[in-house]
Design goal:
By secondary structure, this protein is α+β, with helices and mostly antiparallel strands. The protein contains 31 helices and 30 strands. α12 runs parallel beside α19.
Length: 916
C-alpha cells in the first residue's frame, strides 16, 4: 500500500511516489536505454529547481518537465501552472532540438499536460486535460490505485514525447470566449445606462448563455440524468417573442434542478435586459453568441471540461484589473484563499460566511478545505452537504452569479434538485444574519474615503454606521477621520460569528503603521490571534501590500506576528498553520520569523516593527543611554509658520510683478517655502534666494490706518500691499503679518515636515534670518556640545545633521511619523521622539569621520529615499555612523558592517511598506 495524504510532505511523501511511477513507465515503454528521470535537476545560471525532468541519455538534453503539488486545487492554480512553465523557459538552452516543450503539473490524482507556446498559460493546455485518476482512499490514506493510473497516464505521455508528436492544443474555448466578450461589449455600449451598470446587466445575461451551454454539453457527454433539464437554444430565425419565450423556458426548466443564482433573472427588474428589455437591436448579439456556442461548445467541453479552466479564461477577459482596483475590488488569489481558509477553519463541520464574496474565491477555498478535513477524518460528505456549510453575500449580481457557478460546479455530478448554493445577491449591510457562523472569511474592498472613482457617499456611511450600531457592535469607524471602506466591513462583520467563532481577513498592511489604523488596531486588540505578512511581490494582482489577520471570539493571551520570507512556504498552508500553533516563543529562521507578544501592546504603536524587527534591534538601539533627544542640544525645536493664516501668495510673492516689484530691498530677503524643492544637504546661498519672501519690518501696527508702522510708510509698494489687504479683512491681515514676522528666523538645521520620495535634513551655515513656511521644522540655539575646544560648534551641528540623514536617522522618521497614504508626515510630538548620539561622548575623530562622509554625500548632489538597501549612495555615511554605535554597543552584531547591512535593509522595508 502506498500511504499518502494531502498533508504529506511534498518532497518526502509525494516525490518518491511520482518518481517510482514515472521510472516504471519509462521501463514499461522500453525507453530506459534512451531517457532518464532526474530529480531536482539544476538549471545552470538559475536559482529555481523543478521537481523532475526527463532527459535524453545520448545528449544530456531535456525533453520534459514535471512539477508536483499536493492537491487537485493546486493543479488548477495558474500560479503553479506558470511556475511549471518557467522551468521550461529556463531549460530552453538545454532542451533537445526539435522536441516540443511539453511539461505537466500534477498531484498524482490530477494531471494537466501543457506544451509551451506564446500566450497566457491557459493557451498552453492540451486537449483532453485534465487527466483524472482515482482519488486517494480517505479511510486508509491509500494512493496505490491512484499511482497505478498515474503510471498508465505517463506511459501514454512518454509515447507523445518520444515520438515528438506535435502539440494538439485546446482551441475550441477561445472562440467562444472571444465571441462572448465581443458581443457583451457591443450590447453594453448600446445601453443608455451608466457604464458600470451596463456592464453588470450585460455580463449577467451572456454568462447565463455560456453556463447553459457548458452544463448542457457536460451532462450530455457524461450521460448524467441532469441532461433532461436542458434543451436546445432558440433558433437563429426565431422572432423576438419566440426567442424570449424559448430562452425563458430553458432557464425555468434548469431552475427546477437548481442553479438559482445563475439562471434567475437579474434582480434589477427595471434595468435588466432579459426578458423585459431584450429588443430587436440587441437580440442579434445574443444569437451571435449562441451560434458560437452551438459551433464550439460540445467539442470544447470534450477537450477540457474543467470549470476552473473556463472560469480563468473568461475572467481574464472581462476583468479590467486596474478598473477594479480603482473601485477597491481585488479578487482573492487562489493560493492566498486556501492559506486563509487553512489557518482559520478548525473542523470539518464549520459553517463559513463571506459577506463580500466577490467571485467566490474564498468560499471555493473553504469548500475544498472542509472537504479535505472531512476526508482526513474518514468521513465522506455529499456535494450538497459541503455547499450548505458556506454562505456568501455579494452586492454585484454578476459576481454573485460567478460565485454560484463556481461553487455548484465543484462537483457537477453531485447536483440534484436539492442543491443550493447559499449566495445572496445584495448589500451585506442590509442583510444581517445572526444565526451564528463558526468562521468568517473576508477580503473586503479597499477604498479610500475620498476615492474619486467610487466615492463613499454620505448615504453609504449612514447605512453602514447604522448597521454596525444596530447589530450591537462598538463603532470604531466613527473615531477615524478618513476611514477606508474595509474598516466598515471589519467592524460590521464581527456580528456574524457565534461565541466560539473565528475570522480570517485579508487587510491592507498599511493599518499596522498608519494614523487611521490605530482605531482598527484598538478594535482587534482583544480579538487578534495572529497576523501573517508575506512577500509583497508574491500576490501580483494586489496593488497594495496585504496581510492575513486571524481573529477569535475566544483568543489566547498571546498575539503571533508571522513574517513569511521564503515565498515557497505560501504553497504549504498546513506548514504555515503548524508554525503558528507549534510554539509560544519567538523564532527567527531564514524562511520566516515569528514574533510572539502578550496582548498588552499599544494600538498607537507601529505594529510593522513586530515583522521588520522581531529581535527588537531598533528598540535596543533607541533605548541606549548613548542617544539623546534633540532638545538636549538645541534651545528651539519648532515648526515654521510664516503662512499659517493663508498668506502664502503674499508672503512668498513673485517680486517681478507689481505691487511686489517695488518693495525695497530692506523689506525682502531669504525665504524657504517648498519642501519638495531640490537643495543641497548643506544649504547654499542660492537655496535661500530661490524662494524670496517679504520680510515685514515690524508686527502689525494697530494704531496705523493700514497696519504698517509709520516709519516704513515710505515704502510705496509695501504700503499699497498693506492698504489693499487691510481693507479686505484687517483681522486676517494682522494675523498674516504677525505670523510672517515671527517666523523670520535663524536656524541651524532644517527638517521637511512631509516627504514621499526622498529623505533630507539640511544644515544651514548662514546666520541671516529666513522666512520659513509651515512645511518645515527647524532646530536653533545650539547648546550642551562637546567641551573639547578643538571641535567647533559648526562641526557638531553638522554631525547631528549627518546622523539625521543616515539610515539610522531616517529609520526614526519612518517609525515615529504618520503614514498618510504613502506620505511620511511629521508632527511636533514626532520630533520629540528623534534621538542623536551624545556629542559629549564622542571623540573629535568620530565627529570628523561622520562629517567628512556627510560632506562627500552632499557633493554627490543625489536624492536618497531609503529603499536603496545596500546600494545606497550614503553607504559611507551609514558605515561611519555604525562604527560609532558598534563601539558603544554591538547590539548583537559581529561587525559594524553587519550592523549597517541590517539597518539599511530594515529601512528599505519600512520605506517600501509606507509607499504601498
Amino acid at each position: 500500500m502506498i500511504n499518502l495524504w494531502y498533508n504529506s510532505d511534498e518532497v518526502t511523501g509525494f516525490h518518491p511516489v511520482v518518481e517510482n511511477a514515472i521510472k516504471n513507465a519509462i521501463t514499461n515503454c522500453g525507453f530506459d536505454s534512451v531517457m532518464e528521470l532526474v530529480h531536482h535537476p539544476a538549471i545552470p545560471n538559475s536559482t529555481i529547481i523543478p521537481d523532475f525532468a526527463i532527459k535524453l541519455k545520448s545528449s544530456n538534453r531535456y525533453i520534459f518537465v514535471i512539477e508536483v503539488k499536493k492537491t487537485a486545487r493546486d493543479v488548477t492554480s495558474q500560479r503553479f501552472q506558470n511556475q511549471s512553465r518557467s522551468y521550461v523557459s529556463d531549460f530552453s538552452p538545454y532542451w533537445e532540438p526539435n522536441y516540443p516543450k511539453y511539461f505537466c503539473l500534477t498531484n498524482i490524482e490530477e494531471l494537466i499536460l501543457f506544451a509551451e507556446r506564446q500566450g497566457p498559460i491557459s493557451t498552453c493546455i492540451l486537449k483532453g486535460n485534465p487527466k483524472s485518476h482515482t482519488p486517494f482512499n480517505p479511510q486508509y490514506r491509500d494512493a496505490t490505485q491512484t499511482s497505478i493510473e498515474f503510471q498508465a497516464t505517463f506511459e501514454q505521455i512518454l509515447q507523445i514525447i518520444y515520438n515528438r508528436t506535435q502539440p494538439d492544443w485546446d482551441n475550441n474555448w477561445q472562440p467562444i470566449i472571444d465571441t462572448f466578450v465581443q458581443n457583451y461589449q457591443s450590447v453594453s455600449n448600446s445601453l443608455t445606462l451608466n457604464k458600470d451598470l451596463a456592464d453588470e446587466v450585460t455580463l449577467y445575461e451572456f454568462f447565463r448563455l455560456l453556463a447553459f451551454a457548458y452544463l448542457k454539453d457536460y451532462y450530455n457527454q457524461t450521460s448524467n440524468p441532469n441532461q433532461s433539464f436542458f434543451r436546445t437554444f432558440p433558433l437563429a430565425n426565431d422572432n423576438l417573442q419566440t426567442f424570449i419565450t424559448k430562452l425563458a423556458n430553458n432557464y425555468n426548466r434548469v431552475l427546477q434542478l437548481d442553479f438559482n443564482q445563475v439562471f434567475s433573472n437579474h434582480p434589477n427588474s427595471n434595468d435588466r435586459i432579459f426578458p423585459e428589455n431584450l429588443s430587436a437591436s440587441i437580440i442579434q448579439y445574443f444569437k451571435n453568441t449562441i451560434q458560437a456556442l452551438n459551433s464550439y461548445s460540445s467539442q470544447a467541453v470534450s477537450d477540457n471540461p474543467l470549470p476552473q479552466y473556463i472560469f480563468n479564461l473568461l475572467t481574464s477577459k472581462v476583468y479590467d484589473k486596474n478598473t477594479l482596483h480603482k473601485k477597491g475590488k481585488i479578487m482573492s488569489d487562489t493560493e492566498l484563499s486556501i492559506l486563509l481558509a487553512t489557518v482559520t477553519i478548525e473542523n470539518e463541520n464549520s459553517t463559513v460566511i463571506d459577506p463580500c464574496s466577490g467571485d467566490g474565491a474564498l468560499l471555493d477555498a473553504a469548500y475544498d478545505f472542509l472537504n479535505i478535513l472531512t476526508l482526513s477524518n474518514a468521513i465522506i460528505k455529499s456535494h450538497n452537504q459541503l455547499l450548505n456549510q458556506v454562505t456568501g453575500i455579494e452586492i454585484d449580481p454578476f459576481l454573485a452569479q460567478l460565485a454560484t457557478f463556481r461553487l455548484v460546479s465543484k462537483n457537477l455530478s453531485g447536483v440534484n434538485n436539492t442543491t443550493n448554493a447559499n449566495i445572496i445577491s445584495g448589500n451585506s449591510f442590509s442583510n444581517p444574519n445572526s444565526s451564528g457562523f463558526d468562521v468568517l472569511l473576508m477580503n473586503p474592498p479597499f477604498l479610500r474615503n475620498d476615492n474619486p472613482e467610487a466615492p463613499i457617499t454620505v448615504a453609504d456611511k449612514a447605512l453602514m454606521n447604522n448597521a454596525i450600531t444596530n447589530n450591537g457592535q462598538t463603532n470604531f469607524v466613527t473615531l477615524a477621520s478618513q476611514p477606508n471602506l474595509y474598516f466598515y466591513f471589519v467592524n460590521y462583520s464581527w456580528h456574524y460569528l457565534n461565541s466560539q467563532g473565528r475570522a480570517g481577513l485579508i487587510l491592507m498592511a498599511k493599518f499596522l503603521n498608519s494614523e487611521e489604523g490605530e482605531h482598527l488596531k484598538q478594535f482587534v486588540l482583544d480579538k487578534v490571534e495572529s497576523i501573517i505578512l508575506y512577500p509583497r511581490n508574491y500576490f501580483e494582482d494586489f496593488k497594495v501590500t496585504t496581510v492575513i489577520i486571524v481573529l477569535s471570539k475566544q483568543p489566547s493571551n498571546q498575539i503571533k506576528f508571522l513574517r513569511i520570507i521564503d515565498s515557497d512556504l505560501l504553497s504549504r498552508p498546513n506548514d504555515v498553520k503548524s508554525i503558528i500553533a507549534s510554539t509560544n516563543n519567538s523564532v527567527i529562521t531564514a524562511n520566516y520569523t515569528l514574533k510572539v507578544t502578550d496582548r498588552n501592546i499599544d494600538p498607537s504603536a507601529n505594529w510593522k516593527m513586530y515583522f521588520n524587527d522581531p529581535e527588537e534591534k531598533f528598540q535596543t538601539l533607541d533605548s541606549l543611554s548613548f542617544l539623546e533627544p534633540l532638545d538636549t542640544f538645541f534651545v528651539n525645536k519648532r515648526r515654521g509658520g510664516a503662512e499659517n493664516n493663508g498668506g502664502s501668495q503674499i508672503i512668498f510673492p513673485n517680486f517681478n510683478i507689481a505691487p511686489y516689484s517695488g518693495i525695497s530691498n530692506s523689506n525682502k530677503g531669504y525665504g524657504i517655502k517648498n519642501s519638495r524643492s531640490a537643495r543641497k544637504l548643506i544649504l547654499e546661498q542660492t537655496n535661500l534666494e530661490e524662494e524670496p519672501a517679504i520680510h515685514f519690518p515690524t508686527q502689525y501696527d494697530a494704531n496705523s490706518p493700514n497696519g504698517l508702522d509709520p516709519i516704513h510708510q515710505a515704502d510705496v509698494s509695501l504700503n499699497s500691499i498693506f492698504t489693499a489687504n487691510n481693507a479686505t479683512d484687517s483681522d486676517k491681515w494682522r494675523q498674516i503679518v504677525n505670523a510672517a514676522f515671527r517666523n523670520r528666523i535663524s536656524f541651524d538645521i532644517l527638517i521637511p515636515r512631509a516627504e514621499r520620495t526622498k529623505h533630507t535634513c539640511y544644515y544651514n551655515p548662514f546666520s541671516a534670518p529666513v522666512v520659513l513656511s509651515t512645511n518645515f521644522f527647524y532646530l536653533a540655539g545650539f547648546q550642551n556640545g562637546n567641551t573639547n575646544t578643538s571641535i567647533s560648534s559648526s562641526s557638531q551641528i553638522k554631525f547631528i545633521t549627518a546622523y539625521l540623514n543616515s539610515c539610522f536617522g531616517q529609520i526614526q522618521f519612518e517609525i515615529h511619523s504618520n503614514n498618510q497614504e504613502g506620505l511620511r508626515k511629521l508632527e511636533g510630538f514626532h520630533i520629540n521622539e528623534l534621538k542623536v548620539p551624545d556629542l559629549r561622548q564622542l571623540t573629535q575623530a568620530e565627529i570628523d569621520s561622520v562629517v567628512s562622509a556627510f560632506e562627500n554625500l552632499n557633493s554627490l548632489i543625489v536624492s536618497v529615499s531609503g529603499d536603496e538597501g545596500l546600494s545606497s549612495p550614503r553607504r559611507q555615511l551609514d558605515e561611519e555612523v555604525a562604527k560609532i554605535i558598534f563601539s558603544k554597543n554591538n547590539l548583537g552584531f559581529n561587525s559594524s558592517t553587519e550592523m549597517t547591512n541590517f539597518f539599511e535593509l530594515f529601512l528599505a522595508d519600512l520605506v517600501e511598506d509606507r509607499r504601498l
